Amino acid sequence: MTEQKCVQLNHERLGRLEIPLESILEVEGLPGFPDVRQLALVEHDRLASLGWLVAVERPDLAFVVIDPQCAFPSYAPQPTADDLQAIGAEPDDEISLLVIANLSVAGRTHVNLAAPILANPRTRRAIQAILPEGNHSTRTPIGPEALSNLAGPKTAATRQIESNPQR
Amino acid sequence: MLVLTRRRGESVRVGDDIKITVISVSPGKIRIGIEAPARVAVHREEVYEEIACANRESAGAGPEALRLIREVAREVRE
Fold it and tell me: Does B77 touch chain A (CB under 8 A)?
């Protein structure tokens, strides 16, 4: 067993969090939050395809992020060479793709497909890529069926295997 | 705000590695070229502001957000 180095974070909204160092991403500019440089990816312990991006320097900030493949299977944004360079991507790197969900209006959930988060787990660098105009909306509605897919229990295919999905 | 007058083909240098060139000028609009390192993101202001606005709206998500998603999921399954 290797000892995992963690950062303790007392988050205003999410409570006490223990975040492994490898889950902390250096982010190069998050529009609207120029002071945010580090985001911690916190996976939900029971639900597939859902997690949080928690601002390490701003414990009042947290974004709900989803794996877009579950809800939008045809969504396949092409990162530009500049995007890839910004996260230090090399040909063999597996780049994570996440999109930010907006749950600010009760009963109407939107996701921002126009500006996905690209993260390189190897370099721990991330950016919010801004896709070419007109292809995707910052407020793409996500219906109940798709939400249900997201909120399904983790399966063996996801990174953490859920031993008791029925809680 | 620094205000400069430039002619077509002339440039402005921002720091050591950003160069902005006036490509063409026509009534009501100009075309500019921007040379910048990859780490410097360049976007039209209104595009950037739309993303910033979406981010600000999404930033305050607390535990209630996931509860909402779970409730929807339960309704769909039942």
Answer: yes
Token duo for residue A58 = 């701003």
Task: Tell me the shortest Cα–Cα distance from A22 to chain B, in angstroms.
Answer: 22
In chain A, count H helices and then E strands: 3, 11
**What is the pTM for the complete model shown?**
0.80
CA distances in angstroms from A91 to A42, A83, A121, A165, listed in the order given: 26, 13, 13, 36
Start-end of H helices in chain B: 45-58, 63-77
Q: How many CB pairs under 8 A join A and B?
A: 123
> Which pLDDT tens digits describe chain A residue by residue (167 residues)?
555 688 887 777 777 888 888 889 999 879 999 899 999 988 766 666 778 888 888 878 888 898 888 888 899 998 988 889 989 999 999 999 999 998 766 667 889 999 999 999 999 999 999 998 778 999 998 877 777 776 666 543 433 333 333 33
